[in-house]
Amino acid sequence: MTEPAVFLTGFPGFLGSALLERVLARGDGPVACLVQPQYREVARQRAREITDGIDGVDAEAAIHLYEGDITEPDLGLGDDRNGLESVSELYHLAAVYDLGVDRELAEAVNVRGTEHVLEFATRLDVDRLHYVSTCYVSGRYDGVFTEAHLQEGQSFNNHYEETKYRAEVAVSERMAEGMPATVYRPAIVVGDSRTGETDKFDGPYYLLNMVLAQPSWLTAAFRFPDSSDTELNVVPRDFVVDAIAHLSASEETIGEVYQLCDPSPLPVSAFVDALADAAGHRTVTVPTAKPLARAVTGLLEHTALDLEPATLDYLDHPTRYACPATNRALAGSGLEVPPFESYADRLVDFVRQNPDVGDEPMV
What we know:
Blueprint: E1 6-9, H1 14-25, E2 31-35, H2 40-52, H3 59-62, E3 63-67, E4 89-92, H4 103-124, E5 128-132, E6 143-145, H5 159-176, E7 181-186, E8 188-190, H6 204-212, E9 219-223, E10 231-232, E11 234-236, H7 237-248, E12 257-260, E13 266-267, H8 268-279, E14 283-287, H9 290-299, E15 319-321, H10 324-330, H11 344-353
Parallel strand pairs: 1-2, 1-4, 2-3, 4-5, 5-7, 6-15, 7-12, 8-11, 9-14
Antiparallel strand pairs: 10-13
Helix pairs in contact: 1-2, 1-7, 4-5, 6-8, 8-11
């Protein structure tokens, strides 16, 4: 059996699975995937599904599953680390993607987990590290946040943002010391723009569920004072994964940071209107003080109108995102963020057809 050339964390997660498919399709395997023991069978099934769609690729030969956990030293591999000396590239996607995550879990996975991956990459002496961060390392930065920004003295909406920020700082410090790496910062990732597929309903999906739970003839939405210019920067999974696959294939992108965001995002009010239009609902915006909105969402918890309280902070989020480095690097590739209105109906259809999909992160 051919030894793996690529190591990937975050499989069989939503982004990790799609990126694994792209990496194998371009011939960069075999790929060693770090999988938590409780997801071993899910990973096996997903590996078969991925390789069944690629001619001439065998699941067992192309995808090697290693049981472990980034929260443990040496990624919990122990002696199973033998056989990975051939790895030259490492993709780190594993994280807790949850706005309401508690501090202890976010610290263990996003910060210490990334530190363990950096140590592992150093021991393997990989030729390149690919790290998936988030645009929201910006926290509540007041202004336009680009790839050139990171440590700006910003405050944060939640533990997810803060721990992803600290993780990227750790990666940035290793890059400054000479580690060859590329950082990718997606904005808010929603389902596939072609199929609507997603693996959990969180973030903007709370807004969609709030719309769907109300009468179609009159649906109410919050609007906070002085938030008319607030943007909700959303990108579909296929754009994010295609962009990472394209950028990671070039040696010219080593040492760079790329924000995978929408250069022309919708204001929050227009975003909600687009969801409502796709769902066939008529909306009315209700000016609401933020403390009152928090109280209302608390009362609605565990009802059909359940809305994660952490989502409210993005309805008056002060940061706008720009991606000049990404625009330059993707020029001529044909890759660009589709307008949200062009695929909102597919997101709505998927939600309606898959009511059993939850909002729990894979941890």
